[in-house]
Amino acid sequence: MRILVTNDDGIDAPGIITLVKYLSRSHDVQVVAPDSQKSAIGHAITIRTPIWAKETEVIDGVKGYAVNGTPADCVKLGLEVLMDGNVDLVVSGINEGPNLGTDILYSGTVSGALEGALMGKPSIAISCSNQSDPHYESAAKFLVDFLEVFNVAEIPRFSALNVNVPSVPYDKIRGWRITRQSSRRYRDKFEARKDPFGNTYYWMFGEIIEDDESDDADYVAINNGYVSITPISVFLTDWDFMEKLKEVKWG
Amino acid sequence: MRILVTNDDGIDAPGIITLVKYLSRSHDVQVVAPDSQKSAIGHAITIRTPIWAKETEVIDGVKGYAVNGTPADCVKLGLEVLMDGNVDLVVSGINEGPNLGTDILYSGTVSGALEGALMGKPSIAISCSNQSDPHYESAAKFLVDFLEVFNVAEIPRFSALNVNVPSVPYDKIRGWRITRQSSRRYRDKFEARKDPFGNTYYWMFGEIIEDDESDDADYVAINNGYVSITPISVFLTDWDFMEKLKEVKWG
Questions:
Q1: Residue A165 contacts B, CB cutoff 8 Å
Q2: Minimal Cα distance from B250: which residue of A?
Q3: 3-state DSSP assignment of residue A163
Q4: pTM for this entry
Q5: Quick one: which of A22, A172, B17, B194 is 20 to 30 A from A225 by CA?
Q6: What is this model's ipTM?
Q7: Per-domain residue ranges for chain B?
Q8: Are A248 and B47 in contact (CB < 8 Å)?
Q9: What is the pLDDT of residues A160-179, one digit of tens each?
Q10: Domain spanning B2-183+212-245 has what CATH number?
Q11: Residues of B in contact with A246 (CB under 8 A)
Q12: Chain B contact for A131, CB < 8 A?
């Protein structure tokens, strides 16, 4: 397959390098990725400033473009201009850390895959579940194997796969689970400080809340040693609530 | 009600000023909004740099904080620190231009409402359908009226409302429609130029694609002169595709 690879940790990040090494053994890979760290950028796009794309070599024999934009920008520019639409699959990752539960809303990695889905291409986001001790090779090897048994053309239009791989040696992965996006989320904390000029500023950090236990929850699969594969859509409509809303009448 | 107001066009934008004027007549309003333009920022959050919040007066008698962060940052900081959790409703807007179809994925305005939903608060995003000739007063007046007949406590946990108001005088609004998020999207175009140093750069712009006609599509309601009210969720799971995926077996 001809594969466009992007990420949000930047074109030099170890996750994308490992991914490209493995994918390029059996596929024609080209990288279009941010020139710097773009985590938690969400689905931002660049509309008021121009975008530069600098050609580079990511690993021996694999061409890449370092783009001063977001993952969504990279996918748009990659598909429309740099790879001329001739792409069978978009892969975004391997992210340094998981994209589980509501992470999906903030994730630049996932937004890269959703942008591919919007543009009509089969797309996969892939993340390594542990930021402090990442086993990128396990995630890369899993994806290569998965692509042997799964035909990406079966991904429906406007949908994508969000894959999280446990950060363990490959032979310790217990298999995969098809999961739903859980409500795993953060309780935000703010630490207030004073700058030298007397102004208050805040550092934000979060405690994870995992209270959505069931075998099909994305984070439960990871905690149990399985790869989590969640099919996600670009459509957010809440259909149940829609029916109730229809009963509200103009005053 | 005690209402936290945010937006993505910045705390000085005419849309938020008009919204605050109308809402504050019958509600206790406080503004926590970006100190500058943050359109198309998606659901970005600020995790590597600190956040400043500068107290200001948005209109006579309404306190605000100008924050050097994203709409999602504003909602987090507003709910956790500046308004001490004591909030009945989060309103994000009035956006300069529509948030219809796949705009929702890129929209800072919508991300403000989704962040409120994540934090357990009833939340509404509101946008004015026309960027070049915005009737903000119509949108603000509509929201005030809607809040008279709709009990926001009925918004389910982890869901929010995405409201788009036609940019016409108030008495020309034909009513409202409960809609689904359509596939209205953009065909991206890139114009390549050379900078003075010989490097290629690109300006991105998009042509709108509207090929998802049916009475319950969000943009169809707007094009027909109705307010579009779409219930949206923070969950993106594609349930139909999930069933098919379960048939794929490890090789």
A1: no
A2: A149
A3: strand
A4: 0.94
A5: A22
A6: 0.92
A7: 2-183+212-245
A8: no
A9: 999 999 999 999 999 999 99
A10: 3.40.1210.10
A11: 178
A12: no
